[in-house]
Write a structure and sequence with these properties.
Helices cover 64% and strands 7% of the residues. With 121 residues, it is mainly alpha-helical.
Length: 121
C-alpha cells in the first residue's frame, strides 16, 4: 500500500507517512469534527437570534400592532395548524404571545370601564 503524508487534526500526525486507509480514516474524523463544530456554531447563532427576536417581540405592545399581519400570525387563535412544524419553545412563545394579547385587551377594556365609572362620580 502506498504511504501518504497525513496532516490531520484527529491524530495530529504532523505529516507522518500513513497508509491510505489510515489517511482516509483520519480525513473522515476531521471532516466529521468540522461538521459538528459548524453545526454547533450555527445552532448557537440561531439561538442567539431567536432570543433577540423574543426580547424584541416582548417589548412591543401587542394591541398597537394587531393590524400588522406578521404580528397577527404570532397571536392568532390557538389552533393545531398554528403550531405545525414548530419546536416546543416556539409553540410556548406563540401561546404566551396569544395570552399576552388577551390580557392586554382585557386590561384595555377594564381601563375604559373604570374611566367611565370614575367620570360619573
Amino acid at each position: 500500500m502506498p504511504r501518504v503524508p497525513c496532516f490531520c487534526d484527529f491524530a495530529q500526525c504532523g505529516g507522518a507517512l500513513v497508509n491510505s486507509q489510515t489517511f482516509n480514516h483520519h480525513k473522515h474524523h476531521d471532516s466529521s469534527k468540522r461538521f459538528r463544530d459548524a453545526l454547533t456554531m450555527a445552532t448557537t447563532a440561531c439561538k442567539s437570534q431567536d432570543d433577540a427576536i423574543a426580547i424584541h417581540l416582548a417589548s412591543l405592545s401587542i394591541s398597537d400592532h394587531l393590524n400588522d399581519p406578521i404580528v397577527m400570525q404570532s397571536v392568532t387563535a390557538n389552533t393545531s395548524s398554528r403550531h405545525f412544524g414548530k419546536s416546543a419553545e416556539q409553540k410556548q412563545v406563540a401561546e404566551l404571545l396569544y395570552q399576552l394579547c388577551n390580557i392586554e385587551t382585557s386590561l384595555d377594556n377594564l381601563i375604559t370601564f373604570v374611566d367611565g365609572k370614575l367620570g360619573s362620580i
